[in-house]
Amino acid sequence: MNHDFLVPVNDAALAHLVLHSPKCxxxxxxxHNFQQSFPDLEDVKIAIFGVQEDRNSENNFGCGxxxxxxxxxxxxxxxxxxxxxxxxxxxxLKGESVTDTYFAVAEIITELLDRxxxxxxxxxxxxxxxVNYRAYDKREQTLNITTVDSRFDLGNAxxxxxSQSYLTKIFMQTPSNLFNYCNVGYQxxxxxxxxxxxxxxLFFDAYRLGVAKELENIEPAFRNADIVSIDIGAVRxxxxxxxxxxxxNGFYGEEICAISRYAxxxxxxxxxxxxxxxxxxxxxxxxxSLIAQMIWYFIEGVNSRVKDYPFSGxxxxxxxxxxxxxxxxxxxxxxxxxxxxxxxxxxxSDNKYKRHALIPCTYKDYTDATKQIIPERWYKAMKKxx
Length: 386
Prior knowledge:
386 residues; alpha/beta; Arginase, Chain A; four-stranded antiparallel sheet; 12 helices; globular
């Protein structure tokens, strides 16, 4: 791998490891450090790297600094009963311009994806999500993005790319590879009614914080995602103070860890980012500890993947056909492995949306259909394909 864009992990993240058990994560993953060469990526499934770029982060300058605080807390954790190889590739430094940093990040993500390695991106502003999205361009496939954020980060079409305008760039710039966008945890008073209506008009998904806290409501949003992006400001300030845009309301620590595990469990999620960590505001490394645990739960999810997405043969699924009075029937599949549900979208075999023919859903979607209530997920997916 071309690792010219990556600098080794800060020695401060490694020095304390001498005090920890030989079984801790820091002594059992491949780390790019000053004493050893760049790690061999053979058999690596997950690669962590940091981004020290904060110039386009709105009202949160400093969110690319001191990422070794997160690493220290992560390294001292113990792995689960995992069989995945993990590497820490170090950090991308600020380029001479923000565009230089973006280029380096996109190149790294593209190469990791080509190697079938899942990147975990830490640090920097959430504008890096746009760069992550663009790194998939060469794949020429439509994508689903799920963000965990109290705000939609739409901005105006003419705005520069920032952490609070990157979504508009994803929606409007070409090539347009976006099939579905989903926001999890938005807080209504941070978003205008026009923005809320816009997402609805585009047949995208958005879950208010109160709805999202019922975690079973949002699990399909992560099962359906290719890219998951978390603004640490979506966690309440008392739980994660290290964000200048943090709010008294938001997810609790155990909820954001469960969400991270959902992302890891998804057979489709191929990149995962946690952004907007500002070490200058971190009280007793509380946010660094939480992010370390979020990464742990994501890896736990990846290790627990059971590949129950019905790509081909349906022999491991129960099939349910629901007849609707005024529409075509909806076909549901229930996995015998996990009990998770999907519903089928009827599309032409040569349709560019073929990979979205099965939409993750919940048991409630099935029961609603049996009551002649068309599931909103099915309706929106059909509208996007027209």
